[in-house]
């Protein structure tokens, strides 16, 4: 497996790191490695930068949160060993709790919070001051539309965010990189991408929004690029002010 990073992905990641001041001298970073392509590439890019940026000294740990499904994480351990990054696996029962005990109809939000909590806790135990996640540009756009479609809010996740309760800083270095570029790299590098074991995989609200945006992209070429620009060109003077929101029965007026 070649560890060379495509120039486009490397340049986009460097720009995000600089724009949001994601990494500083002496940082200790826990990288969430799920086995998906995004987290594997994130670890590769950060390891490459760790070795190539001699004036910036920071440490990395790869951490996998085992949700309690039957998954062989051996390939991830080997992947991290080949990169020269220490690897940790945290065993949990998040999956069984959500799907068997609680029988959640919309499991993604709770699962995300529990996984993040487990990752943050292990990061603190390792002495880390930052946690890195592999969310990409498409994830940011999808989260924006999910908030609007299902919550009636205009918001998405931040590239860099301080978690005061945990005294940790969350960073998303791949936030400028489109998913298609990551998919191409994963195929070309034969990365050990693991199949998602989640019973809800492919049947979530995020998948629905992804399909809607892909359909729009077919009709409006480069719409994802423009949406990325829109996230950075927010004209607050042309958005409605926040008001007290109450459910309103419009049908009662008919």
Task: Describe the overall structure.
The chain is built from 9 helices and 6 strands, in the order αβαβαβααβαββααα. It has one domain: 3-Layer(aba) Sandwich (Rossmann fold). α2 links the parallel β1 (28-32) and β2 (59-66). 28% of the residues are buried. The mean pLDDT is 91. It has 254 residues and is of the alpha/beta class.
Distance between termini?
A: 64 Å
Strand content: 5-15%
**Main sheet specs:** 6 strands, mixed
Domain count:
1
Can you tell me the residue ranges where pLDDT is under 50 for at least 5 consecutive residues? none
Class based on secondary structure composition and strand pairing: alpha/beta
Q: Which strand order spans the largest sheet, edge to edge or round the barrel?
A: 3-2-1-4-6-5
Question: Overall pLDDT, averaged?
Answer: 91
Nearest-angstrom radius of gyration?
A: 19 Å
* Number of beta strands: 6
Question: What is the name of the CATH superfamily?
Answer: HUPs
Quickly count the helices.
9
Kindly report the oligomeric state of this protein. Answer: single chain
Q: Can you tell me the CATH architecture?
A: 3-Layer(aba) Sandwich
**Which percent range fits the helix content?**
40-55%
| CATH level-3 fold name | Rossmann fold
| Rough outline | globular
Order of helices and strands: HEHEHEHHEHEEHHH
**CATH first level:** Alpha Beta
């Amino acid at each position: 497996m070649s560890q060379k990073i495509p120039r486009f992905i490397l340049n986009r990641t460097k720009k995000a790191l600089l724009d949001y001041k994601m990494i500083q001298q002496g940082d200790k970073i826990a990288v969430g490695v799920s086995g998906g392509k995004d987290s594997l590439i994130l670890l590769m890019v950060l390891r490459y930068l760790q070795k190539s940026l001699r004036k910036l000294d920071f440490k990395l740990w790869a951490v996998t949160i085992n949700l309690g499904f039957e998954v062989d994480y051996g390939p991830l351990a080997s992947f991290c060993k080949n990169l020269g990054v220490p690897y940790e696996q945290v065993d949990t029962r998040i999956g069984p709790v959500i799907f068997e005990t609680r029988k959640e109809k919309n499991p993604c939000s709770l699962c995300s919070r529990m996984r993040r909590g487990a990752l943050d806790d292990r990061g603190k135990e390792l002495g880390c001051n930052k946690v890195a996640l592999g969310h990409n540009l498409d994830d940011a756009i999808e989260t924006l539309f999910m908030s609007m479609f299902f919550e009636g809010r205009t918001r998405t996740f931040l590239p860099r965010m301080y978690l005061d309760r945990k005294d940790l800083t969350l960073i998303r270095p791949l936030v400028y990189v489109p998913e298609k570029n990551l998919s191409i790299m994963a195929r070309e590098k034969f990365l050990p991408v693991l199949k998602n074991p989640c019973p809800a995989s492919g049947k979530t609200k995020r998948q629905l929004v992804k399909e809607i945006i892909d359909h729009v992209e077919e009709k409006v070429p480069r719409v994802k690029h423009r949406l990325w620009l829109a996230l950075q060109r927010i004209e607050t003077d042309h958005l409605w002010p926040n008001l007290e929101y109450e459910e309103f029965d419009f049908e009662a007026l008919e």
